[in-house]
Amino acid sequence: MAELSDKQIERYLKRIGLGGPLPPTAQTLSAIQWAHLHTVPFENLEIVPLDQRFTLDIPAVYDKVVARNRGGFCFELNGLLAVLLESLGFEVNRMAANFSDEADPDPFDHLVLDVTVPSDGSRWYADVGAGRTSPDRAIPIEGVSADGERRVHLADGRWVAERMDEAGAWSPIMSWGPEAYELSAFMPRCTYFQTDPESFFRSGAMCSMLVTGGRATLAKRTLSTTIDGEREERELESHAEIGDVLRSIFGIEIPVDDRWR
């Protein structure tokens, strides 16, 4: 699937609560990122508890995210977003990134998008697949976000995404090199995350999404919400309670049984 059809674009935009047509502008890019993060959860439920192997085949990812109202992790979500953006007229490069807090990072630990707006040549960092560290809007490459709290700059030959900490200092989040890759280059790491006992994604079920005023996260049986700076936690005691949270907050319908952990 090199591009999405007009009907597929319309359905994808409807999934994230947007209408079209949308011109390939910086404003459109940021609107898509914001809407995506508020409607499509970052989740590993195909890995735990469902234990279902998957590939990065774009038609299958489209079916999962758009038709079946599910989420996914970086390779799926950013991989699919890249095709949407290209179908809208953006130029998109798929970049292999590492998180800054990793002691021994794999070169393909994370996928981010380097997006060029055709009308003015401006470049933007887009990412809807990094969970809590995803910026809610696209960030200008070699620039600072509109709120002054995020930036991307070049350091030692790598692009570095940073966030301003509480002390007013820039703190690195992740970095990526100048090379662009095909989505297939990320498949070995995708397989590792699904199958290796040491994989973080096999440690327990997780589902997280931006909601009005903050974020909601289900990690195993703990539901955490941070709304307007106020954090609350609640332990879910039954499969029925977990299923209700998945439906009501994240819009996900899957069987919840003894495989949940």
List the helices and strands and how they pair.
Elements: H1 6-15, H2 26-37, E1 42-43, H3 58-67, H4 74-88, E2 91-99, E3 110-116, E4 123-126, E5 139-140, E6 143-144, E7 150-155, E8 158-164, E9 170-181, H5 187-195, E10 206-211, E11 214-219, E12 222-227, E13 230-235, H6 239-250
Antiparallel strand pairs: 1-10, 2-3, 2-9, 3-4, 4-5, 6-7, 7-8, 8-9, 10-11, 11-12, 12-13
Helix pairs in contact: 3-4
Note the overall shape.
Answer: globular
CATH architecture of the largest domain: 2-Layer Sandwich
Any idea of the CATH topology of the largest domain?
Answer: Arylamine N-acetyltransferase fold
Reading the helices and strands in chain order gives HHEHHEEEEEEEEHEEEEH
Enumerate the spans where pLDDT stays under 50 for 5 or more consecutive residues. none
Strand segment count: 13
Instruction: Give the percentage of residues in beta strands.
Output: 25-35%
Mean pLDDT: 96
For the largest beta-sheet, the strand count, sense and barrel status come to: 8 strands, antiparallel
Radius of gyration: 18 Å
As laid out across the biggest beta sheet, the strand order is 5-4-3-2-9-8-7-6
